[in-house]
Design a protein that fits this description.
homodimer; 598 residues; alpha+beta; 7-stranded mixed sheet
Chain lengths: 598, 598
């Protein structure tokens, strides 16, 4: 069975040495008191919960799965899940970064980001239950009426109740404009909702006493398409004025999906049979309200793959040092053993370092995004709020798609290090691959993310936000340009940043003439953008490590960081050369293929 | 549930229009009578068997899996597997390319290659049972004593009995030199074999009345390491002189692995408890004897992924035309529908075309290799036999690794086209991904293949065999160099062929100084070599298609082939640019990482 060791040192490095989050948070009144010790204590305790409580349930949860009782419509989660959730609520983890007005601890999102990475490493399927709840919390917090907030937010904050996102229907996922669920006004301000939803993660379970479903449906006479969709709050059990639970609402789980992975999470088919709900946000503007939840969820999905990347890497590393097989090509290394540990082989190291670099780059980028979210929400300067919001909007599709593509590659590499043993369920490595696979699909496929990035976030404002990020890179290049030790990192980064401007303009121009050109380039473009961001953070991390060494530090952590950055620029970053070439090849080689795809 | 339509037209195109196999076979006396109609009839019937008998058992076989009765040590295969196997034997499929001396039909390996591709498309897990048997047939045919051949080959040929390859032990897979199973001479020419084997595909099942295990073990006083391993034939049931089955031999299945995929195949843990066997080949030269089987198996594994690539592509194509979701970026295409079919989206096409190009390139390469095997075995000219043997030895690790890496990418793309529905078991798409994953591991991991290619097959003879393949490319470039319509295919191919020589020399030189440099470059090198081979075959196929069109053909098949070739060169082939860059980055960025991998 896999093990898990929370990467506290690397999180602390990113927070305190690279991003200086405590200083940044000091500018935000509600986080001004957050200090290094507090953040370190939170992640240390979070790491204990993840590794001691959740990790032991991951493999068994996969084996056991969820079970639906078709007569009661109740779902039993795998053994131990319910108890672990009770401990989670008891420990106050659900409330960590929630609003104190509703009982939250009010800690910055940066803290939550690190804790969630560890929960995901330990058990992605389990973590989806509180993860979806937190998304529901955010949507209600942003768009709920004062009555809804008062009635529901405290229990979502504490975690006593959970939430779900009910978007998908059998005939529509990406294209929510097609959805058919109906909401009929009852006349008392409530609505009766009827329809069938599928793929509802954490849609039914036995871990909390109530579930608050956020449901997309159409009002009578709503405009067609995506402009006629409204958002409703549909509780599993109605809530009485004294906060006790009332009648069961007819929103029933009618089936659970048999999936490739995340078996421990119940993926429910829900039948709404005149279930009573209340409107969240304005009529016909449900998608806007839901987008709050979806943006958070997209960063959350990237974080799931970051977690899997880290834990898969850790276990592959242990195995590579332990497994004796063949000799090094340059002569025996473990002469007293019958064979060398497989970590002597260059390609085994390449697979390990790929996973490690993806984890470390992803961690830096994700914590950076969390810090931007903290600023976007509560920084006193409006311009900082706006800039932060725009930057995180730009980075969100990259986090979602780049980190999940990387996570799939990384978990596959980690599994490959195990050879045939990686294919066996009991080692736990193939589960990481199966679990990681969904992250490339849900909350908007990675193709959809690439169109969001290139079409909306970049070309949609003539590259203005991209230029903001470009300025950060330019500043770093200028600062470090004369530092010879940094040249191996700064040169390729600066070169790609220069190319990126031209590359973007080119595609923008082609897309202006033929919009399909954007769709023909976007997936490759997103990966190039991902490397630009990773390159920026690896250069910053390398710069910090070099400074520490110059100051006399002999901590092997900094040597390790430099080795990983060097590997990253030499072995992963050059992928951009081919990606730019294929992205530039034009859409005709995809669209003029009717006979080939006949 | 997925469907499957045998790609007969494309197989016929490769065999008859590109490779002219009938003409090539005319030079081989035992195949001189094989004509186009015979080959077409064989693959047509094979396709029917695959699509009608095996395909319907694929998803159910995955769901049901194999069950071991721990008291009897007998394994029950999924419902329908045994009946399908009886039909397979009855239809004479097992005997297709076997030696007529032992009851075989004596058809060329080219025919078997096409049939096996289709069997693999329909049901990889099932196909492994006859596949392993055929490997055992080949090893016995090459290395068995006359008595062994007489006693066992007829039943292996007919398929009444099956075979297995018993190599792996818990502590050794790649490094067979470490194996511990022991063989004690009894004194009557037989041996008592004791040991534990794991990961034995088709190692125990209910589909045949007897199983012939080919077992690697050590004789007393055998030299240490890989030079002290001998090969033994250990039947599940002893065979009496009258060919009836005798006593049960103590080779027992003690467990079945729980695997990521290929659930329909029984992956057995075998305990040999003084099981009686006979020596195959010479003492201590078991690895050489087993290599016959392993080389065939490596081509067979590439063929498994080719099969999965094709069937996954077919189903994704159907879905992409059927699923309505969003509008084309360049305006609605299906105006009478609520949304466009997703095939209008450039990236969906890219995913489909990637799978299609990998299937078609893989098919051409695999049939070519089969033809080389036919020549290597029975061509009357010794030089042709030798050249063919060397060329297929060069191509074998490429087929194994390149086709299985491609197959994993292709099945993942096909699954991605299904969006969330691809993650659901019942659509069958995620099974293709899980099944395809093992192909990158077993019969020598893809890293091992890359070392075999670069270290042994290329640098081992100073690039002599590679030069032979290079001559084929040079001839094509010369022939087509003046044909303007071919320039989009020939130019990049010729350019890569030129670079390849320099690239190989460089690595060879670095490897001479530090052997680890070979291990640091080999995986990227193999993918470049794979594209060189695919590029060659796509150029040849494009050349044929252009000629047919010049002759007046309006068959959309040729238009399709040109579109696929164009896509291949524009979108997949350019990967070589990055691969050469990373391969050239040197092994230091992998090996000087002790702190990073601490």
């Amino acid at each position: 069975m896999p093990t898990y060791n929370p990467p506290l040192r690397d999180m602390q490095f990113v927070m305190h040495e690279v991003l200086n989050v405590v200083d940044e948070l000091k500018e935000i009144p509600r986080h001004a008191d957050v200090d290094t010790d507090t953040l370190n204590a939170v992640i240390e305790e979070g790491g204990k919960f993840a590794s001691q409580v959740l990790q032991p349930l991951n493999l068994s949860g996969d084996t056991e799965g969820c079970v639906l009782d078709k007569t009661t419509h109740e779902v039993k989660t795998p053994t131990g899940f319910k108890d672990a959730y009770a401990q989670y609520v008891e420990g106050g983890w659900a409330a960590l970064s929630c609003d104190p007005e509703y009982g939250g601890q009010g800690l910055p999102i940066v803290a939550n980001q690190c804790v969630y990475e560890m929960l995901n490493s330990a058990n992605q399927a389990w973590t989806m239950y509180p993860g979806l709840s937190h998304g529901a919390y955010e949507a209600l917090h942003a768009h709920g009426t004062p009555e809804q907030k008062k009635k529901y937010l405290p229990k979502l904050t504490s975690g006593e109740w959970t939430g779900s996102m009910c978007l998908t229907e059998p005939h529509c996922g990406t294209d929510l404009g097609l959805l058919r669920s109906k909401a009929e006004p009852v006349g008392d301000g409530t609505y009766k909702i009827t329809g069938n939803k599928i793929f509802i993660s954490a849609g039914e379970h036995d871990m909390a006493s109530n579930i608050l479903h956020l449901v997309l449906a159409r009002l009578p006479d709503a405009p067609k398409g995506s402009k006629g969709i409204s958002l409703f709050l549909v509780p599993k059990f109605h809530v009485n004025d004294d906060e006790s639970l009332g009648e069961r609402n007819p929103v029933f789980c009618t089936g659970l999906e048999h999936k490739m992975g995340i078996h421990g999470n119940s993926t429910a088919q829900l039948s709404l049979e005149g279930a009573v709900g209340t409107l969240v946000g304005e009529p016909n503007k449900g998608l806007q309200a839901m987008f709050v939840m979806m943006n958070a969820a997209r960063l959350g999905v990237g974080n799931q793959s970051l977690g899997l990347t880290e834990v898969a890497y850790q276990n592959a590393l242990i195995y590579a040092k332990d497994r004796l097989q063949m000799r090094s090509l340059s002569g025996p290394k473990a002469k007293d053993q019958p064979a060398d540990p497989i970590i002597v082989h260059p390609d085994v190291r390449k697979m390990l370092l790929t996973a490690k670099a993806y984890a470390e780059g992803g961690r830096a980028m994700s914590i950076y995004c969390a810090m931007l979210l903290d600023k976007a929400l509560y920084h006193p300067d409006e311009k900082v709020r706006k800039d932060s919001d725009e930057l995180v909007a730009l980075l969100t599709p990259i986090v979602k798609a780049f980190l999940t593509d990387n996570g799939f590659a990384a978990t596959n590499h980690a599994m490959q290090v195990f050879g045939g043993h990686g294919y066996i369920h009991e080692t736990g490595m193939e589960q990481y691959v199966r679990d990681a696979r969904i992250n490339m699909i849900y909350e908007g496929t990675n193709t959809v993310q690439s169109l969001d990035l290139l079409g909306r976030k970049i070309l949609g404002n003539q590259g203005a936000t991209l230029k903001k990020f470009g300025k950060l890179i330019a500043a770093l290049v200028q600062e470090e340009g004369v530092n010879e030790k940094m040249s191996e990192f700064i040169n390729p980064l600066g070169y790609l940043a220069d190319q990126m401007t031209k590359f973007t303009t080119e595609i923008g121009f082609k897309g202006f003439i033929n919009p399909d050109e954007v769709g023909g380039a976007s997936v490759d473009y997103l990966r190039v953008a991902g490397h630009l961001v990773f390159g920026y953070f690896f250069a910053r991390m390398a710069s910090v490590a070099l400074k520490k060494q110059a100051e006399g530090s002999t901590d092997p952590f900094y040597t390790a960081k430099l080795q990983t950055a060097r590997f990253y620029f030499a072995r992963l970053f050059p992928e951009t050369a081919s990606l730019m070439r294929t992205a530039r090849s034009g859409v005709a080689n995809l669209l003029e293929t009717d006979e080939a795809l006949a």
